[in-house]
Amino acid sequence: MFITKKISKRATIAFLCVAAAVVFIIFRLCVCSQPEQTSAVSSLGAYDLSAGSTAKQIEFLNQFGWQTEKKPIETTTVKIPQVFGDVYERYNKIQLEQGLDLHDYEGEQCKRVSYRITNYPDTRQQVNANLLIYNGNVIGGDISSTRLGGFMHGFVLDGFTKEVKNDAAA
């Protein structure tokens, strides 16, 4: 003898909606999420992007020969624009040259941490390292002067001599 129970159309539709939502969520989590970039390649070669702590951020900058003060001079939250204008496209060009791409983070909030560089070849002006950090990894950044009409470049300085790099390692 079989016992059957009639399932209403309403219950069937509700079940199908829940099942579809679960499948969609699993699809978004598994297929659409990007793997986090943990290393990049520049003119110096491959480098580690880990920057989840102050010590890691300083280690990150040391990879390029930079010495910094032990504490950041500024930490703030910034939002990467959903659509890049000319300024962000030019800034992203610097990132692309150092193996990074801010387009991967459009619309995301990240942390910007700035350190004063203490071994920049031209010491007559203040020079800062600015790191854009997302989920504990550097996603972009620059080396720039604070002087009006100053400069900005990627983490690697062309002409940053081997002697200066060696001094930074000491």
Write the topology of this structure.
Layout: H1 9-32, E1 39-42, E2 45-48, H2 54-62, E3 74-79, H3 86-97, E4 109-116, E5 127-134, E6 137-145, E7 152-153, H4 162-169
Antiparallel strand pairs: 1-2, 3-4, 4-5, 5-6, 6-7
Task: Record keyword descriptors for this entry.
170 residues, alpha+beta, five-stranded antiparallel β-sheet, two-stranded antiparallel sheet, 7 strands, disordered C terminus
Q: How would you describe this structure to a colleague?
A:
- The protein is α+β, with helices and mostly antiparallel strands.
- It has one domain.
- The chain is 31% helix and 24% strand.
- It has helices at residues 9-32, 54-62, 86-97, 162-169, and strands spanning 39-42, 45-48, 74-79, 109-116, 127-134, 137-145, 152-153.
- The strands form two sheets. Strands 3-4-5-6-7 form a five-stranded antiparallel β-sheet. A two-stranded antiparallel ribbon has the order 1-2.
- A hairpin with a 2-residue loop joins strand 1 and strand 2.
- The radius of gyration is 24 Å and the shape is elongated.
Short description:
This protein has 170 residues and is of the alpha+beta class. The chain contains 4 helices and 7 strands, in the order αββαβαββββα. It has one domain (39-169).
**Oligomer category:** single chain
Q: Number of helical runs?
A: 4
Sequence of secondary-structure elements: HEEHEHEEEEH
> How many structural domains can be distinguished in the coordinates?
1
Cα separation of the termini: 86 Å
Kindly report the average pLDDT value: 80
Structural class from helices and strands?
A: alpha+beta
Assign a percent range to the helix content: 25-40%
Number of strands: 7
β content, as a range? 15-25%
